[in-house]
Amino acid sequence: MTVTARPAHHVDSHETQERSAQFRRAMSTLPAGVCVITTADSEGTPSGLTVSTGFSVSVTPPMFGLCIDLRARTLPVLLQRGAFVANILHGDAEEAAAVFASRAIDKFDRTGYTRTGTGLPWLDRHAAHAVECTINSTTEAGDHLLIVGAVGAVHASPGSAGTPGTAQSMLAYGDRAFHRLPRLP
């Protein structure tokens, strides 16, 4: 299949700004799961940010997608490393989500973490699951970068939703607030 981009029609900046504001309001009502994306630079210094745009791209082969603002401080580190962990947060991890959504410089000191076998930071106390990926492709999309990662490993935290006999809630974001979603049986 070939996909061809259509040229955008010319609109004045006021119309564009108004449409952007309307779109932002509409999208704020669409609940999304919350992930903290973590990576580390070549010296092993961790970096991370909160996103509500993590999604499954493919099951075979396993691929994970996310969108990151082009101005995000973590983006250059992630691109240089070429790998990341998508920490899928459980319902009690609102504080960790808020820390990684902030501009704090001590994010990892405040939340704690474990290193995966490849040396990437994993928020094992806050993530029900962690999906470890290497970057497969990137596409600039407006003011964000769409990143697709090939899944190399999936980690389950103790007591996570995927562990038999447990039913942990998950964290979602919608209407500009965090919400705890119950796990479905």
TrEMBL record:
The protein, known as: Flavin reductase
Outline the extent of the Flavin reductase like domain: 27-180
Q: Which GO terms describe its molecular function?
A: FMN binding; riboflavin reductase (NADPH) activity
What keywords were assigned to this record? Oxidoreductase
Q: Where is this region: Disordered?
A: 1-20
Q: Which PANTHER family match?
A: FLAVIN REDUCTASE, FLAVIN-DEPENDENT MONOOXYGENASE, REDUCTASE SUBUNIT HSAB
Q: Where is the composition biased (Basic and acidic residues)?
A: 9-18
Its family? Belongs to the non-flavoprotein flavin reductase family.
